[in-house]
Design goal:
21 strands, 3-stranded mixed β-sheet, 14-stranded mixed β-sheet, about 1000 residues, alpha/beta, disordered N terminus
Length: about 1000
């Protein structure tokens, strides 16, 4: 794929969309311009002319008197009043046209707002834009970053465009003009310096903001890049000049809002031909310019007080930090770190895994001694335990992947049990090995499902509350998870948030404390911001960017491998997150294997051409759908009675930048994307793309930089090797694995991972009953408060005979974090409790990979249950009827209830990650079905019914058991008994109704069952 070869700057930039390269105007453009001209002429000239000709002067000819109130209201009176209203509307619209024409022709700043002229000014803007379309690119009218999410009536911080042509690609005429302007500037600044005489250092340097060339504007980033050698030092210039009055009377309040003619004092080490010092003699310049620079120079040190030093310190630190709050200076950033509560107050009320720290350190310190959120680019772990830190430090991503993996395994389990795919594959998913096992363990350690649940409920609860108040959803372009609290950063002020949300550090922040979020229940509301995705951490706060709300393209620069790690992380989280309803993620030119994570969400396209064709059709369709529904954006379609499922987001991830022609087409599609719920994240070598609203760069050190956003994040990455390991987990759990989905496995179910000797000689040394109430035979009960913890640790090891990583054990028992010494002390205590084998070897061991395993002499009833069923159906019982019957009967007797029926509330939370809750009922149903078949072979229908009823006690929803129970009851030959069973089945089915296959069986066995049930009712 072709890439841009334009020379790049030394760092990433964030600015308003770059102007698109010019293109030839079509006949349609000229037709639109002509129609716009006709409409403007009719509205601006035709309306007053028609009023004057047909109505005349509508106001009274004399002074008002009391007689007016007694006069009859005629049609003429009504027409005159209406005429006055039309005159006022015409005057307002004409003012809007003048404002829009002035702004469009000057190319400086955004148009001013005419009071009360929302729709009128919008119409004027569209007509003026269409008229000028033949002389300007479409991108010239795209909204800037500072206008992101702001409505016409609600602009809080209008900004001038800051896009500038890429250095090195100016035409010869433009270069000459730039050189001439630079020379004039040097003369002006030098002459003014001689007039200053204010005691300033003789080497103070100044720069005067250049007027735009075409529609390309100067910016502090580019000034710093040219004259300080590093665009990130723009903040030094900002700090030197912040709030100082400029020649036009305005002040610099945001780094992105500068105007031509403004004067910027520069740091002492600034260099370049466009800068001047304060010489004793100055060339001749106008008196006005001399006075401007002289007056500006006088205001420097008196107010700044060492701004250069502050700026230098800021450059060393990487971003503005304020006190303990860790906030980026709001005047220099569009995305701001929220003010944080003290750590101690944030983790007192629940599992604090939202920022990746509580799950590892929490109250007791870090499990690994490593700072959370600092990704390892190669996925390696420095702690010696060999788990990939990139997943451990990404709790939301890990929770999404772990939840999706569990659902996939359950789906496979049920489909296999019901015979939906191939033949039986057994009760256990394939045991991962190598890097896949490490990835699974990292998911278990890092996942924060509670944090995902709270985030989801909080956002849906906000949407429901706003709907009740008949308020629209505000545009949100970032969410921060900080010390357990959720902070939403709005594109503009939206009033006071609904309770329990509270205003944040300023009017653009809404905040929800974790304690308040935990009070939210399940809310029947659409996911309001499904496009949120985590990019990384900054000062302990985790940033989620709302990709679907960005007004244009988000570009990502950096090396191909580093970009791929970011794209893989974004794609994986979007595909599996828990705070979205429906979503489409289109991957272009990368990650075709990632579709295994969520085939219903992810789709893969080969090239940019296919993407443009697809998105062009979808963009048109969404525009039409919004117009037909009467919505101005997808946000209004996600609240109230609207069919919110129609407004699901579509996020496009393009890893490699398109060629210039395709880049222009893509930028034109993205210009209106935020309103339509479509987001674009596009990678390029330089990070520069036409139409890019936000520009970011990922470094080889794992940093994600967006200087003009004020961001320097520890990036959330999914490196290539780790991505392959995660995909391997999902492929292994797929219902149709390669080579095994067609029944080619020989018809035999896979054996359980651990088989017990079920003969008389196979008595275990330690026997734990897990199916039902928890009991341990062969060990003394530990004294003191440590007993429940030891029992829980043993249960986890018994359910994972393949071994448990020490960090997984620690994460399961202490989800809020624990220190290594406490974890190791528990392992030693557990080893002492379990004791040793006759040969002296401990029953708790460590295998070659460092995982904790149990000796074969430590057995659970679940192990025995699995082994008995396997032996009865595929072992000795397969060829011996008596052995099969005895083993199946013994297995069913072991079932005493659900798994760990008496577990204490608040413990065993790790079971939510397991699929044992689905495995055990299916296993019991299989045993009941096999024993029923065993009895029916000898026409012992009552015995079969007894076995099936026993199995239904643990698997009441298994359709196979009900079908066999109907057959066994029919074999008894008592229609009334069969009719009663059918009525019971219908009652249990509830609103869902009887399953189709069961309904067909009832029609066969009891044709009149419907009439019998109706008469009974």
């Amino acid at each position: 794929m072709a890439r841009r070869t334009t020379p790049s700057s030394t760092g990433p930039r964030n600015r308003t969309p770059q102007p698109l390269p010019g293109r030839r105007r079509s006949a349609g453009d000229f037709v639109k311009a002509f129609l716009a001209f006709v409409a403007l002429a009719a509205l601006v000239v035709g309306v007053p002319g028609a009023l004057a000709y047909f109505v005349g002067w509508p106001l009274p000819g004399g002074a008002p008197s009391m007689d007016w109130l007694q006069q009859e209201i005629t049609v003429g009176t009504f027409i005159n009043v209406l005429t006055v209203v039309v005159w006022l509307a015409w005057a307002q619209f004409t003012a809007c046209v003048l404002v829009e024409v002035k702004a469009a022709l000057s190319g400086v700043g955004m148009p001013g707002r005419v009071p009360g002229a929302g729709a009128s000014q919008l119409l004027a803007r569209q007509l003026v834009a269409a008229l000028l379309l033949v002389g300007a690119t479409a991108a010239s009218f795209a909204p800037g970053l500072s206008q992101f999410g702001q409505s016409l009536e609600g602009n809080q911080k209008p900004a001038a465009a800051t896009a500038q042509q890429t250095p090195g690609v100016l035409g010869q005429d433009q270069q000459s003009a730039a050189a001439s302007a630079a020379g004039a500037l040097a003369e002006q600044a030098g002459q003014a310096a001689a007039q200053a005489g204010t005691g300033q250092d003789g080497d103070t340097k100044f720069y005067r903001i250049q007027p735009p060339e075409g529609r390309h504007h100067d910016s502090l980033w580019e000034i710093a890049e040219r004259h300080l050698g590093d665009g990130r030092r723009y903040k030094e210039i900002y700090q030197l000049n912040k709030d100082r009055e400029q020649p036009d009377g305005s002040r610099l309040s945001e780094a992105s809002l500068i105007r031509p003619g403004w004067i910027m004092e520069m740091p002492a080490d600034a260099h370049g031909g466009e800068l001047v010092q304060m010489p004793d003699e100055a060339p001749k310049v106008s008196e006005e310019v001399r006075e401007q620079i002289s007056d500006y120079a006088k205001t420097g040190d008196q107010r700044q007080g060492g701004g250069a030093q502050e700026g230098g310190a800021d450059r060393q630190g990487g971003a503005d930090r304020q006190g303990g709050g860790g906030s980026v200076d709001q005047d220099t950033a569009h995305i701001t770190i929220p003010e944080q509560r003290p750590d101690g107050g944030a983790r007192q009320d629940g599992q604090g895994g939202q920022d990746g720290q509580d799950r590892q350190g929490g109250e007791g310190g870090k499990d690994t001694g490593r700072e959370s959120g600092t990704p390892a680019a190669d996925g390696a772990d420095d702690s010696g335990f060999g788990l990939p830190e990139a997943l451990i430090g990404a709790p939301l991503l890990a929770a999404g992947l772990l939840g999706a993996l569990g659902r996939r395994r359950r789906q496979t389990l049920w489909q296999s049990a019901m015979g939906a795919v191939g033949l039986r594959r057994g009760m256990e998913p394939p045991t991962p090995t190598g890097s896949a096992a490490d990835a699974q363990d990292a998911l278990l350690v890092g996942a924060d499902p509670e944090g995902v649940r709270l985030l989801d409920r909080s956002l849906r609860g906000l949407a429901a509350a706003l709907t009740q108040e008949s308020r629209p959803l505000p545009t949100v372009y970032a969410a921060w998870l900080s010390n357990g609290d959720l902070h939403l950063q709005l594109a503009q002020a939206a009033g006071r948030p609904p309770a329990p949300w509270q205003p944040g550090q300023d009017e653009t922040f809404w905040t929800l404390a974790r304690a308040d979020a935990e009070r939210y229940g399940d809310v029947d509301a659409a996911a309001p911001y499904p496009g949120l995705v985590c990019l990384g951490t900054m000062d302990g706060s985790r940033l989620l960017l709302n990709l679907e709300a960005v007004p244009g393209i988000v570009s990502l620069g950096g090396s191909r491998a580093d970009r791929a790690a970011v794209f893989a992380s974004v794609a994986a989280e979007l595909a599996t997150n828990g705070w979205s309803d429906r979503m489409t993620i289109t991957l272009v030119g990368f990650g075709d294997d990632l579709t295994a994570l969520a085939p219903n969400r992810l789709r893969y396209l080969e090239d940019v051409e296919a993407l443009i064709e697809t998105m062009d059709a979808e963009t048109r369709q969404r525009r039409g759908a919004l117009g037909a529904a009467g919505h101005d954006s997808v946000l209004t379609g996600r609240t109230g009675p609207a069919q919110h499922t129609r407004w699901a987001p579509h996020l496009v991830l393009l890893a490699d930048g398109p060629n210039p022609e395709d880049a222009v087409k893509l930028a034109e599609l993205a210009a209106d994307a935020s309103r339509l719920g479509i987001g674009y994240l596009v990678g390029s070598e330089t990070g520069e793309l036409p139409g890019a609203a936000w520009e970011m760069k990922v470094t080889g050190e794992g940093k994600l930089l967006a200087p003009l956003l004020g961001l320097e994040l520890d990036a959330q990455l999914l490196p290539d090797a780790l991505r392959r390991a995660v995909v391997e987990l999902f492929v292994a759990a797929d219902p149709r694995p390669e080579g095994g989905g067609d029944g080619s496995d020989g018809g035999a179910a896979a054996p359980p991972p651990f088989l017990v000797d079920v003969s008389e000689q196979g008595r275990p040394a330690v026997y734990a009953r897990l199916v039902g109430s928890y009991e341990i035979i062969g060990l003394e009960t530990p004294d003191g408060e440590r007993s429940p913890l030891l029992h829980e640790a043993l249960a986890l090891l018994l359910l994972h005979r393949e071994g448990v990583h020490p960090r997984v054990l620690a994460s399961a028992l202490w989800p809020r974090g624990v220190t290594e010494d406490v974890r190791d002390a528990l392992v030693d205590r557990l080893r002492d409790w379990l004791g040793s084998e006759p040969d002296g070897s401990p029953r708790l061991r460590v295998d070659a990979s460092g995982r904790l395993t149990l000796a074969k002499s430590v057995v659970s009833d679940l192990d025995v249950l699995r082994s008995l069923y396997h032996e009865a159906t595929q072992g000795r019982g397969a060829g011996n009827r008596a052995v099969r019957g005895r083993m199946l009967t013994d297995a069913l007797v072991l079932v005493r209830g659900p798994l760990l029926a008496d577990r204490a509330e608040g413990r065993y939370g790790w079971l939510t990650h397991e699929i044992i809750d689905a495995q055990l009922p299916l296993l019991v149903a299989d045993i009941g079905l096999a024993l029923s078949e065993f009895h029916l072979e000898k026409d012992r229908a009552e015995k079969a019914i007894e076995a099936l009823n026993a199995a239904l006690g643990s698997a009441p929803g298994d359709e196979r058991l009900w079908n066999e129970l109907l057959r066994a009851t029919h074999a008894v030959g008592e229609p009334a008994r069969l009719q009663a069973l059918a009525a019971d089945l219908v009652a249990r089915s509830g609103a869902r109704g009887v399953p189709p296959r069961t309904e067909a069986l009832l029609d066969e066995l009891l044709p009149g069952w419907r009439a019998g049930i109706a008469s009974a009712v």
